[in-house]
Amino acid sequence: MTVTITKCHMENVQVLQEISIETFHDTFSNQNSPDNMKAYMDRAFTIKQLESELANRSSQFYFISVDKEVAGYLKVNVGDAQSEIMGNGFLEIERIYIRNKFQKKGLGKCLIDQAIEIAREQNKDNIWLGVWEKNDNAIRFYEKLGFVQTGVHSFYMGDEEQVDIIMTKKLI
After folding, report:
1. Potential cystine with 98: which of 44, 72, 150, 171 (Cβ 3.0-4.6 Å)?
2. Topology annotation, domain 3-128
């Protein structure tokens, strides 16, 4: 199994959209109404929205591939691109999405390591992320990697307000 991580560029927006929709649906459709899922995905994963995010200099996307097949991606934010005001010493991991058939192969850890490397290159002292309070597997995964809960924030799935746990990891 050959794993590679490559930066995602504007010409990759179609693949980014396909993987975003697939992975988000597979992860969250069992616990959310079809209407709320559709409303969220129709807003978050349009080509126009993803192009806007790709064009933001404070955000970066990376594909992770296994044997040249795109298995998922990472999105990180700094500065004012962060979904919460955290300050200049922080890098946000906004998305880590792995396609179902590639889960449990260590790819999530590879993407966390990539985020840590980016944070260190940018002289950030902390990384943080928001994870849905009902996503127990993800919470345990992040805890094993040294993240601790430092707060909560709201996340809207369609018209439903949900709670994301904010988890932070110090890099010093």
Report:
1. 72
2. Aminopeptidase (3.40.630)
pLDDT digits (tens, 9 = 90+) for 11-45: 999 999 999 999 999 999 999 999 999 999 999 99
- DSSP assignment string, 111-144: HHHHHHHHHHHTT-SEEEEEEETT-HHHHHHHHH
Q: CA distances (Å), 69 to each of 3, 89, 108, 128, in order?
A: 9, 34, 16, 28
Catalytic residue positions, numbered: 142
How many CB atoms sit inside 10 A of residue 138's CB?
A: 17
- The rounded distance, in Å, linking the Cα atoms of 171 and 163 is 25
Which of 70, 75, 76, 71 lies closest to 98 in space, CA to CA?
71
What pTM was estimated for this model as a whole?
0.95
Are 164 and 153 spatial neighbours (Cβ–Cβ below 8 Å)?
yes
Domain boundaries, the chain: 3-128
> d(Cα 123, Cα 109) in Å, to the nearest integer?
21
